[in-house]
Structure prediction request, 136 residues.
Amino acid sequence: MNIKIQTNSSDKAFNQYLELINEGLPNGETLPTSFYEVKKYMRDLGFGYTIIDACPNNCVLYRGQLEAARECPKCKEPRFKSGKQKDVALKRARYSPIMDRLQQLFTTKDLAKDMRWHKDKRVDDDMLRHPTDGKT
Ligand SMILES: [Zn+2]
Prediction:
């Protein structure tokens, strides 16, 4: 997924990479065979996200009280593309809950050690050595 994102590869190209890599793997080894499967796998690992429609001018997210709104209450821009049979949002935002991401950072010993660096490794002697040593 990291290579796909960094190279801006299409889903079709990514599927072809997976197919090629799978052909080279020994029997019994498994790797997802499609972009869809990779996304599902990542969601199961806690790297999922929620898609929320947004105003094209970044005024509001259509959630909560605005979930059923058809235009932005601030700038009056329509929420959906016109001329489509189904409602297709003009802009969408992806939201990843912070707690899920933080929990993932503590799942391996090495990452958890890095996450605790501020608490475990810093010297607490009233000297200003790191921005977090300051009161603010
Ligand atoms: Zn707006």
Strands lie at 50-54, 91-95. The helical segments are 2-7, 11-24, 35-44, 98-105, 109-115, 117-120. The chain has a mean pLDDT of 90.
